[in-house]
Design a protein that fits this description.
CATH topology of the largest domain: L-fuculose-1-phosphate Aldolase
Oligomer: single chain
Radius of gyration: 24 Å
Number of helices: 18
């Protein structure tokens, strides 16, 4: 058995349409390559504050605008991006905010929920009654702006108008700056400038900060168009949007973390913490209240963007519960068993009960797999990943017939700080992908170690904001994703890439007649997802050498490191 970390060609064992159905990603078109992303974007440049823009920033802005136009982005004048704000909109905003505040107050008085950020008249007074940038238009601004005149003050949607702010390079930031300094710098810039992305421009290079805590640095005079197309465009097209509770079927107070079905896996989540803490790969997050917003209005907007989470932490630990794998059946048997007439036209079908089945291409032929329900125990968003309180931090998420499901522990209801991970869609993509791979392997290789592990003990799934050293890739683990666009962790693209890559990896293992034990999903300018036998065993692996992994981009380039 050999290590496998060469480039994974896109094999398409399953269509994008089928993957979207399996993952329940909706009906909207989801662009997967930067060129398509660019063509779907509409961007405007915010009016300049000439006294805050030096020549270096102005030249960069001019170059960026010309580049965006050349790669197919629809760049429109600022006045064309605006739409009038109706009084009806303002009245509805005030009424909705008043109702929200009353509901919070009643909940606190009745002890139904903990304290949330109330919307005061002072906060609402900052909402401007004039023309605003239409929802969906991306806004680029150059230089410093005074309070009350930020792009965020002038957009229709706090979540659907991603903003890019171009600034001078902060002092002390260079090619040798460590992850933690970049992380702290980016968090301060996001809060102070109320922006989704920050571009910092130096004399010879520029850096792109995103909420993924990524910090790629590019030269000013080399491959500028390539850097914009393959780094900035994916982040503009697929911005961070944490999953909302409204996206889930919610079953409150139904999870018994101590029963036989959950207890052993909760124990793995808890007891692995000390081992994983030693790795240094799961740093403390940022608390919203501690960030340096300029006023309460901006803090309120920040909380809306995070769906009222108390902050952000980086990485996740998850335990997929054991799966009773469905037997894959040969394509020749499908029509007789399912009486399905559309198999020549598409590679998935849904029966009368809503159960999804897919036709997967392998080197051994096509097989039909019925998608089982998959369930995962993980931590709430913002929890201390290596010191979790099982009674307050555990969330059970599932994917059932293409719908996300969320269960809370007995005695615990959904509160302000109890929200699912930003990476929920990716976690579930890995979980359902494991079940699909397991079903195929169970048919082709009944003695598969992966199949035995998944059915008996489930699978650990973990993520951190760094990469594995290619010299330490465990045997039987397949690496993929390094050639994918650097989209945000909460985007539908990230989930599609996870499932596509896993199926490609399985195909490669079967083609090479090598045993598939797990996979390592690289998310460029974000981090690593790994499937492992247990979190405790993952901790032992990551601690086996100081050179196994590191935060940041140290081991990102697999081909040059190999």
């Amino acid at each position: 058995m050999k290590n496998f970390h060469e480039r994974m060609d896109i094999l398409h064992p399953l269509s994008k349409e089928a993957i979207v159905k399996v993952l329940g990603l909706g009906k909207e078109e989801i662009p997967l390559v930067p060129e398509d992303m660019a063509r779907e974007l509409t961007v405007t440049f915010y009016p300049e504050e000439t006294n805050t823009i030096n020549k270096n920033l102005r030249d960069f802005g001019d170059k960026l605008k010309a580049t965006l136009i050349s790669i197919g982005v629809h760049v429109i004048p600022y006045e064309e991006a605006l739409m009038p704000v109706s009084y009806k909109y303002i009245i509805l905003r005030y009424l909705k905010s008043a109702f929200h505040s009353i509901r919070i107050l009643v909940g606190e008085l009745l002890s139904l929920q903990d304290h949330k950020h109330r919307i005061t008249l002072g906060i609402l007074s900052h909402i401007k009654i004039k023309k605003k940038v239409k929802s969906g238009v991306r806004v680029i601004t150059i230089g410093e702006r005074p309070t009350g005149y930020l792009p965020m003050d002038n957009v229709m949607s706090f979540t659907n108008n991603p903003i890019v702010t171009i600034l001078d390079m902060p002092a002390g930031i260079n090619n040798d700056t460590d992850f933690h300094k970049h992380f702290d710098t980016a968090a301060k810039l996001f809060a102070y400038h109320m922006t989704n992305l920050v571009i910092c421009v130096g004399e010879n290079n520029w850096i792109l900060y995103s909420m993924n805590a990524s910090h790629p640095i590019y030269p000013l005079e080399k491959d500028f168009e390539k850097s914009i197309l393959y780094s900035l465009i994916p982040k503009l097209s697929a911005p961070i949007r944490p999953p909302m509770i409204s996206e889930f079927i919610v079953k409150q107070r139904t999870l018994d973390i101590n029963d036989n079905d959950h207890g052993p896996f909760v124990e793995d989540l808890v007891k692995s913490g000390s081992l994983l803490e030693k790795t240094g790969l799961y740093p403390p997050g940022k608390i919203i209240e501690e960030l340096e917003f300029r006023n309460e209005f901006y803090k309120w907007v920040g909380k809306i963007h995070l769906d009222h989470r108390n902050g952000m932490s980086f990485g996740f630990l998850a335990r997929q519960l054991p799966v009773k794998l469905k037997h894959a059946i040969d394509i020749s048997e499908v029509r007789n068993k399912y009486n399905e007439k559309d198999l020549g036209r598409r590679d998935y079908f849904i029966n009368g009960e809503g159960v999804i089945s897919v036709i997967i291409e392998t080197p051994h032929g096509k097989f039909c797999v019925e998608i089982p329900d998959v369930w995962v125990l993980t931590e709430r968003s913002g929890a201390n990943k290596t010191k979790i309180d099982p009674h307050a931090d555990i969330i059970k998420i599932g994917l059932v017939k293409g719908r996300m499901v969320l269960q809370t522990p007995i005695g615990l209801s959904i509160k302000k700080h109890y929200k699912p991970s930003f990476d929920t869609k990716v976690i579930l993509a890995h979980a359902v992908g494991n079940a699909m791979v397991g079903s195929i392997l169970k048919r082709i290789n009944p003695s598969s170690k992966f199949v035995y592990a998944l059915e008996k003990n489930g699978m650990a799934i973990s993520h951190w904001h760094g990469y594995l050293n290619s010299k330490h890739i465990p045997l039987g683990w397949y690496v993929y994703g390094e050639e994918r666009p650097p989209v945000s962790c909460s985007s539908p693209q990230s989930a599609i890439y996870a499932l596509q890559g896993k199926l490609d990896a399985m195909y490669k293992s079967l083609l090479a007649n090598e045993e598939y034990l797990g996979d390592i999903h690289i998310e460029p300018q974000h981090g690593t997802n790994i499937n492992y036998l247990s979190l405790s065993e993952l901790g032992e692996f990551l601690n086996s050498s100081e050179e196994v992994s590191a935060l940041g981009n140290k081991y990102l380039n697999y081909r040059s490191a190999a």
